[in-house]
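R.M. (postdoc): so does anyone remember the format we settled on? I'll just put the structure tokens first.
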């Protein structure tokens, strides 16, 4: 897929998410706050192809279980499955990828970066990688930061979300994907 097609597809996905957040009864945005999204929608960085990577997942030989604190004071357990290695602004970065259980095919990549709390949601952002969508024929994962999103607890206290493990706090800015929630809620 060329850059123009990639950008068009990304913009369509963002429009669909805006419609879902405004109109769908399952939206995480409280009904009384949805009017604030009409017109502007969610806030995103412009698409940046330099923040889309096709990477090998370096699977951990020993897959350790980690406990991650949640926004409501609980704990959620994940399996530390593997790591992605890449460069942003000439700086080496490593992000851990997690699974909820060993049978799960999807990878959960959660991170904070130097934009967290300033330009983006303070608690961090997420990226879900699905093999049928994000795995290339040669076995590389597509880690596209342009698709990063805020957890639903960014929009409503009705949701519980896992915090970002400190090992996934990046020391670079990731100016791609979803920005701070436009509705004034911030952690």
């Amino acid at each position: 897929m060329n850059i123009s097609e990639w950008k068009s597809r990304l913009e369509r996905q963002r429009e669909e998410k805006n419609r879902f957040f405004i109109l769908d009864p399952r939206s995480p945005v409280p009904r009384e706050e949805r009017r604030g999204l009409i017109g502007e929608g969610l806030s995103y960085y412009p698409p940046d192809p330099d923040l889309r990577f096709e990477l090998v997942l370096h699977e951990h030989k020993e897959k350790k279980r980690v406990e991650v604190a949640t926004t409501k004071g609980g704990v959620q357990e994940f399996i530390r499955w593997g790591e992605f290695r890449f460069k942003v602004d000439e700086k080496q970065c490593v992000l851990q990828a997690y699974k909820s259980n060993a049978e799960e095919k999807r990878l959960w990549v959660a991170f904070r970066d130097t934009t967290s709390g300033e330009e983006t949601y303070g608690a961090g952002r997420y990226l879900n990688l699905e093999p049928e969508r994000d795995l290339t024929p040669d076995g590389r994962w597509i880690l596209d930061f342009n698709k990063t999103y805020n957890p639903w607890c960014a929009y409503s206290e009705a949701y519980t979300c896992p915090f970002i493990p400190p090992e996934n706090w990046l020391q670079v800015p990731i100016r791609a994907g979803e920005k701070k929630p436009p509705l004034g809620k911030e952690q």
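R.M.: ...and that's the designed sequence above, right after the tokens. Also worth knowing: The two ends are 37 Å apart (CA to CA). The beta strands are 52-55, 58-59, 65-69, 75-88, 91-99, 107-111, 125-129, 141-144.
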